[in-house]
Amino acid sequence: LSDPVFLLIVLARQDGDARLGMAISRRHARTAVERNRIKRLVREAFRLHRASLPPVDIVVMLRGPTAGTARVVLREGLMRLFGLLEERNPD
Question: Which pLDDT tens digit goes with each residue over 39-60?
Answer without folding.
Answer: 999 999 999 999 999 999 999 9
